[in-house]
Write a structure and sequence with these properties.
alpha/beta; five-stranded parallel sheet; Rossmann fold
């Protein structure tokens, strides 16, 4: 398939994800867990970076698996999201490459409201992004020092450290960081742009708009 260099080769994970959109398929395959358990599954759609797979057996987020199908051989993957009878897989390298070293773009979501934070995380994980979360600006800075990301998405009104101060800190310490500001108030978003946000989104936010905006800032548009 186009998502692979050839039967048995590793996925073309480092290429631009926009050049390899997900392709809908109905493909019978098999997952092998780290413990050696073999699980029959169906690949529903696939890209160079990951796949959505229908599976009945329970799996856990973070599980390392090997996906095998006649059309493209074997490739290592990690479970990045779970829904009833369906999981999202992120492809990883076949020669000791871990998920932390994966070429998937990484996103940090900074949002003090738990439900909104979880919603944004699920939207991006379904689009095969690696996602970290933080409750406020101070948590975000600490996390960013430990594991820098490609894109930071931040709410603006938060305790501890608000989004305005976080944008100033991030763009000062890491000038190449892509920051997306989110808020329900236009005037706050205008201020965020002046402080260095590459893009803004007004709440409520759809999954389509969120993913498109992340891809645009990554592409430098």
């Amino acid at each position: 398939m186009a998502a692979f260099e050839g039967r048995g080769d590793k996925p073309v994970a480092a290429q631009d994800r926009r050049s390899h959109p997900r392709t809908p398929v109905i493909l019978h395959a098999q997952l092998e867990t780290a413990s050696g358990q073999l699980i029959d599954c169906t690949v529903l759609d696939i890209s160079a970076r990951g796949a959505r797979v229908a599976v009945v057996e329970p799996l856990a987020k973070g599980d390392a698996v090997t996906l095998t199908a006649p059309d493209f051989g074997r490739t290592s993957a990690c479970v990045i999201w779970i829904e009833p009878q369906c999981v999202g897989l992120e492809f990883v390298g076949r020669h000791g490459l871990t998920t932390g070293q994966s070429a998937l773009p990484s996103v940090l979501i900074v949002e003090d409201e738990e439900k909104m934070r979880d919603l944004l995380r699920r939207m991006l994980e379904r689009a095969s992004f690696t996602v970290l979360t933080a409750r406020h600006g101070r948590d975000a800075l600490k996390l960013f020092h430990e594991r820098p990301v490609d894109v930071a998405i931040t709410d603006l009104m938060m305790p501890e450290m608000d989004g305005f101060e976080l944008i100033r800190e991030l763009t000062t310490q890491w000038p190449s960081i892509h920051v997306i500001a989110i808020s329900g108030a236009d005037i706050r978003l205008d201020t965020a742009r002046q402080l260095g946000a590459k893009a803004v989104l007004k709440k409520p936010i759809t999954g389509k708009a969120l993913v498109a905006t992340v891809e645009q800032v990554l592409a430098g548009r």
